[in-house]
Amino acid sequence: MGSAKLKIGGVWSGILEVELEEWTIPMLREEIAKKSGLETINLICAGKLLKDGDGTEKLSQLGFKNNAKILASKVSIDQGKSVKDESLAEEERCTRLSRLKAAATSLSKRHADGSLPVEDFNLELENQSGQKVQLGTETDQRAIMMGLMLHTNAKVLMRKKNYKEALEVLTMGEEAFSLCNQKLIEMVDNVPILQIDMVWCYLMLRDISWLSVAGVRLAKAREGLERSHGKEASRLRLLQKGRYPEIALHLRLELLEGVVAYHSGQIEKSRKSLTSAQAKFLQLQIPDEALSLLLSMGYKERDAKRALRMNNQVVESAVDFLVEEKEKKARQREDDIRRRKEIKDQKGYGTTPLGKAVDLERLNELVSIGFEKELAAEALRRNENDTQKALDDLTNPEANASIQIHIESRKKKRLRQAENAVIEEIVSMGFPREAVAAAVRTFGTKQAALDHLLTSAATEDQNANDTLHNNQGEDGNANNPITDQQSENGSGANTGSSSARGPSHNKVEERDVEMEDSITGELLRGDAYSDYDIEVTEEGEAINEYLALVTIGDNVENRPSS
């Protein structure tokens, strides 16, 4: 094609001779920018903004011909800022997603592998009745926990209309679930619900490029729901005492199936799915009288609507549901208080040689047959939670005596460490260490020791000083308090195998507390109905939109030919 003349207008006007087989968009942009005296410019040709691409395509390949007209315009400051802001936002988003995945990984590992909790709660799996369950191996537990955390976080993003980021988090959640034994996954409905949420994000993003994938996901979701809920939700109905929590979920599923069918040209199938979804939408509409009645009983509007939706608008059943939920929350609060106390005690027992926490269920078993709790805990700790080995130690007089000596030694060391912390704090105020140590050991508490030190006269006679020194305790450690760096397994600990030593202290894991709190906060606020509690306003609008499109399609098909 050879050389050509391009007509340039805008920030620089003139004829530019170029070699179409050699020049690229970046070369063209650079040349016009040089002639216009500007650093950056936009180029527009045939109504399209010219982009650099990978910088290798020649003008001839892009369809440029002789006498082509190009408009050159100055890049505005706002546009430059917009590009920069977009780049920064993308970088921030990637960082946030990386932090989210890392935090979910850390949390799931910590709460599934038996490690000592660093929080005052435990993340535990529940079934559709809200009962705690153990599913599969530690790997399975971790995979399911991580998948649930990511799915929950994605739901928060969906509520904020941030569907693009939600879709990425859902993809990570799907990946996490895939690491679990598939036989276990088939027992629960979490993955089918996640699949439906992914396709909902496709719809909200108006991205039909996902059409083929969406159809596959929805087919898997329907199959998974039937497998976990039973035919026509019979198993779920039994678990939920005849309630209908799944209607909104199936409404969304049928709507999405109708949308996919419409864009695939299956108009009749689309109409059938959309009509069924519309019927469910109408079924979920709250009667004013029923809502007013529940509000008059003192229930909050959101709770009342949820109860009516879950119970097919039957007021009596909705009231029963609300009463049950209130009782369940009260029990949950009591369980949380009990669990926080258990975790506090658990931390006091220390960790096993392999870094695991003492298993509280096994501990309770030993306590139930008559063993003292702290004694049983230490036996389990040093035996890696092996109940039989712990029993052997507890019933062996020599081993039992050794455990008791160790427990007493540990108690004394902890008391000395606490005492030493008080001493260090008071010494930091400027008091002499020897006088502080004597006062703390004599008067017991920080405040009493401080009062004594502040009121003691410098001219106090030697007898008073002798009295203080005589009350320092038999171990004579007043002038040599244990330092914070000294291990609990110091001079008083058994020197046998590692399993007989004091509580293990693992290297402290670096945590992203902010992100972990964000994840767990939403999880702890949820309940067994959270996945089914869908506000269906947007679904209703989408149903009407696509039913209208289906009707238009019918009219076009049935229009008589001229």
UniProtKB/TrEMBL annotation:
Sequence segments annotated as region (Disordered): 464-522
Membrane spanning stretches: none
Stretches with biased composition (Polar residues): 464-488
GO BP annotation list: regulation of ubiquitin-dependent protein catabolic process
Coiled-coil region list: none
Domain of life: Eukaryota
Organism expressing this protein natively: Nicotiana attenuata (Coyote tobacco)
InterPro entries: NUB1, UBA, UBA-like_sf
Pfam families per the UniProt record, alphabetical: UBA_7
Name listed for the protein in its UniProt record: UBA domain-containing protein
Regions of compositional bias (Low complexity) in chain numbering: 489-502
Residue ranges of domain UBA in the record: 285-325, 357-397, 417-456
